[in-house]
Structures are given as C-alpha cells and as structure tokens.
Amino acid sequence: MPVQTERPHLGLHCLKIRHLGVTQGGTAILEDVNLHIHCGGITAVIGRNGAGKSTLLKAILKEIPSTGTVEFSGHDGRSIPRLRIGYVPQSLALDPGSPATVLDMAQSLTSRWPAFLPPRKKDRERLRAHLARFNADSLLDRQLGRLSGGELQRVLLGVATLPKPDLLVLDEPVSGVDQAGLQLFYQLLDRLKEAEDMVILLVSHDLPYVRRSAAQVILLDKTVEAAGTPEEVFRSAAFAHAFGEGTRPEGGEG
C-alpha cells in the first residue's frame, strides 16, 4: 500500500469523549472516562481483564447505553453527525459448512446490490483491488469457514476500511491468530496508519506491539488511569499496579 507523501489534514480529525459512564445491573463498569484522540496514528487501549476495554468500544459504537458524550469532529472543527465507522472484532462465529464466500460477505456489507443476485463484475473487481492492499485478493472466492484466523482478520480489516471510515475500531483483532498471521496483520495495520487519515482505536493485550507502534496509549481500569505516549504510560505507577511491578516496558509483560 503506497504511503502518501502529503497529508495536509493529518491529525485534524478528532474523537472527543467526555465524562462517559456505563452502568450495568447496578454496577458501574466505566466512570468519568475523558479522552481526546486524534487521527494519524494508533491509539491503544490497554488494561487488565475486566477493566472495561470492550465496554468502552461498545459505548463508542453506541451498542450499549452510556452517559456523557462521544463526539467526532472533522477538519473544520465541527461535529460530524454521520460518522463512518469500520469495526474489526476479535473473531466471527462461522459455520464451517456454510457456502458463503469472502465475496458474499464483502458485497453484503459494502454494496446495495441484492445479495441473491450474482455479483456485478465491477463490484467484484473493486473488491478484489481493495483486498489486494491487505494480501487478501486471492481469498475472494474462498468460503469464510475455511479461512485461517489470520486470513479472516485480514479480510475483516479490508472490509472495515471500504469505504474509508472516519474511525476504525479494532477489538483485540489478532486474538487466536498464529505468529505468521499476527506479523502480517501488524504490518498491514502499520501501513494503514501511515497512509490514511482516520482515527484508529485498538484494544490490545500485545504490549510489545503497543509500545512499538502506538502513538498514544490509554490505560483503563473503569476510568482512565494513565494516558500519553507508550513510554510515559509504561513507566507510570498505574501501569506497574495493573500489570505487576516486574513488568518490563522494553518487552511488554515480563
């Protein structure tokens, strides 16, 4: 994927979260979360299990009720009411015997062409060309249930970015992916952050990757315990408390 040399608006898109809270069954899952996230790099959300990371994503995506405000502003500083969001989940529950192909899924999510009709040639070529950027064009006619974990996640990343979103949300997208697939996915994500003007919000347990590639890190434990560059967050007392005093910033979890 070619890297653009001129991106005059890079960093001007902004996701603003103010006083966000989520309560479920009378228990506060998130309290007074305040974040200011710019485009042009990866913002990683880390924290212990049960810290509320996936809940935060669901609140941003408006999948669950929350208090506070979530606002996305454009280059002119004005709020964008119809936000384009791309989403890559941890995994999909797929029937290995289903005849549905990558093309079927991609067309159903990115085109208004009726799913029961054969795909139009122009749609097929458009999807093939886009998936080529994610090393997934050869998978177009493969059944979804026969893809490896890494292949499926590359396909989902490709579909999530067509059309280009304002906000790309990734919820532990390499969970269960083997080492080769993990490295390829990370390479694609790194290229994407360099080439595209979008906010990328990543929930991850892979601390070495976060330290190496994230522009901003949010340490969450019901609320924001630390925020800043990877170096600032990894050396904070909140990080040591969350992951243990023996955790080494140089290599993630030690």
Give the arrangement of secondary structure elements.
Blueprint: E1 14-24, E2 27-38, E3 42-46, H1 53-60, E4 67-73, E5 85-88, H2 102-110, H3 121-132, H4 149-160, E6 167-171, H5 179-195, E7 199-203, H6 207-213, E8 214-221, E9 223-228, H7 230-234, H8 237-243
Parallel strand pairs: 3-7, 3-8, 5-6, 6-7
Antiparallel strand pairs: 1-2, 1-4, 8-9
Structure in words:
The chain has 254 residues and is α/β, with parallel strands linked by helices. The chain is built from eight helices and nine strands. Strand 1 (14-24) and strand 2 (27-38) form a beta hairpin. Helix 4 runs parallel beside helix 5 (179-195).
CA radius of gyration: 19 Å
Low-pLDDT runs of 5+ residues are 1-11
Helix segment tally: 8
Give the termini distance in whole angstroms.
Answer: 34 Å
Helix content: 25-40%
Mean pLDDT value: 87
The count of β-strands is 9
Strand order of the largest sheet: 5-6-7-3-8-9
User: How would you spell out the order of helices and strands?
Assistant: EEEHEEHHHEHEHEEHH
What percentage of the residues does DSSP assign to strands (E)? Answer: 15-25%
Taking the sheet with the most strands, its summary is:
6 strands, mixed
Sheet/helix structural class: alpha/beta
Shape: globular
